[in-house]
Specification:
heterodimer, A: 224 residues, mainly alpha, MetI-like fold, globular, B: 240 residues, six-stranded antiparallel sheet, six-stranded mixed sheet, 6 helices
Chain lengths: 224, 240
């Protein structure tokens, strides 16, 4: 098989992996906040954080260019202060994929936290646990399966990210050309056999991820 | 053992606003706060346990202030050293009986291991005849075993008093009567001050050494059970 397909797959896995890791941390934190805390602007925050799920990826890509582009207000500052550029790098692709996949982790985490009986958290508090210990010993273990199912979906979504990634990171073979972008390039160039390989590889990877997600949510139903 | 409670709390929900204004002092070993549902019993008990912050007032136990809005005192629930028996027992479903009982003895970020050895836990397992089921999860237990596990979990850390939140309300009538007998027998053995809230007159008759009637968010009457009544002027319970 064409070695460039493997390079694209490895890059896709790297980008999706980092994006999912970022989403896991932020998604769990925001999901817990939305599920457990009452504060003004909560509904607005929920809506804004869910936006990437409904907005066209090109719109997200445009927002990202405005934000982290070389002349963007954050990207410009990064460039001037540290000489760091995110546009046309794999790190830029990570940011794009993380934002697109974020709502999947957020929704799953919020639902999972809302499913944890607050009475159990109260019981743990009365038994002498600090708030951190309550979260780590009661809340998180009970919500974990639900969160993990969302994380796997986010990983699959990040793996297939195309629009925002293309706008932010471009299509540099071996550097920012992920599987889904490589498919597009191959089809545009009329390289049907390359496209076949890439499409097969993508499908198999996504099926594997979905099977794992399904198994996890089954385990969750069995445990409750 | 004494409780000194004077608290105010305003609770706003979607379609009603509720004003809790509870004042009482009791020195009885067994106090029952009795009232219809919606009277503010649960709010009162949660405020005493530190699970709900009153708007103003003070809560003291044995003259130690647990909450005092004037002095800026508000001990977190974990520092109040109460045992709390929840209505549905609130046992941790993924932990076995031994882990549930040992839960509060381990303060770190990890739960006690499945067969952690601990002298105090073993003692309570034996005392409550739970040794046989120590490795089982709460959903595998009978109602009585669940109640005893919850009680052991609350008592193992040697709390200063036991707070009971409608301990029998969730049970069907036949089981309720049995659990009541069992709890009464257990409490007779362990000799710990307790404060119970209930809407069931039967609980009041059984456990209410001193009695507070809560209605519409405030205490409307206080008194003692007949068998414990003392001559006038020596009441150990009075409205503040």
């Amino acid at each position: 098989m064409d070695s460039s397909a493997w390079v694209a797959l490895a890059l896709s896995l790297k980008v999706a992996g980092w994006a999912t890791l970022i989403d896991l941390v932020l998604g769990v934190a925001c999901g817990w906040l939305l599920a457990r805390k009452r504060f003004p602007g909560r509904d607005l925050l929920d809506a804004v954080l869910t936006l990437p799920m409904v907005l066209p990826p090109t719109v997200l890509g445009y927002y990202l260019l405005v934000l982290i582009g070389r002349r963007g207000w954050f990207g410009g500052w990064l460039n001037e202060t540290f000489g760091i550029q995110l546009i046309f790098t794999w790190q830029g692709a990570v940011i794009a994929a993380a934002i697109v996949a974020f709502p999947l982790v957020l929704k799953a985490a919020r639902a999972a936290f809302e499913g944890v009986d607050p009475q159990l958290e109260r019981a743990a508090r009365v038994l002498g646990l600090s708030e951190w210990a309550v979260f780590l010993r009661v809340t998180l273990p009970m919500a974990w399966h639900g969160i993990l199912a969302g994380v796997l979906l986010a990983f699959a979504r990040a793996l297939g990210e195309f629009g925002a990634t293309l706008m932010v990171a471009g299509s540099i073979p071996g550097k920012t050309q992920t599987l889904s972008i490589a498919v597009y390039e191959a089809v545009q160039a009329g390289q049907d056999s390359v496209a076949d390989t890439l499409v097969g590889l993508t499908s198999i990877t996504c099926i594997a991820v979905l099977l794992a997600a399904g198994r996890l949510s089954q385990a969750r139903t069995a445990a409750t | 053992m004494s409780f000194d409670v004077q608290i105010r709390k305003r609770v706003n929900s979607a379609n009603r606003s509720f004003e809790l204004d509870v004042r009482f002092r009791t020195e009885a070993r067994c106090t029952v706060i009795y009232g219809p549902s919606g009277a503010g019993k649960s709010l009162t008990l949660q405020a005493i346990a530190g699970l709900l912050k009153p708007d103003s007032g003070r809560i003291a136990c044995d003259d130690e202030p647990l909450f005092d809005s004037g002095a800026g005192v508000d001990l977190p629930a974990r520092a109040r050293r109460f045992g709390f028996l929840f209505q549905d027992y609130a046992l941790f479903p993924r932990l076995n009986v031994r882990q549930n009982i040992a839960f509060g003895l381990k303060r770190g970020w990890f739960n006690p291991s499945r067969n952690a050895a601990d002298a105090a836990v073993d003692r309570w397992l034996r005392a409550f005849e739970l040794t046989e089921v120590a490795g089982q999860k709460p959903h595998e237990l009978s109602g009585g075993q669940r109640q005893r596990t919850a009680l052991a979990r609350a008592l193992v850390a040697e709390p200063r008093a036991l707070l009971l939140d409608e301990p029998f309300a969730a049970l069907d009538p036949e089981l309720r009567e049995r659990m009541r007998d069992e709890l009464q027998a257990l409490l007779a053995r362990i000799d710990i001050p307790m404060l119970m809230i209930t809407h069931d007159p039967e609980d009041l008759a059984r456990f209410g050494e001193s009695r507070l009637l809560l209605r519409g968010g405030s205490i409307v009457s206080a008194g003692e059970a007949l068998q414990n009544a003392k001559p006038a002027g020596q009441h150990n319970l009075k409205l503040v």
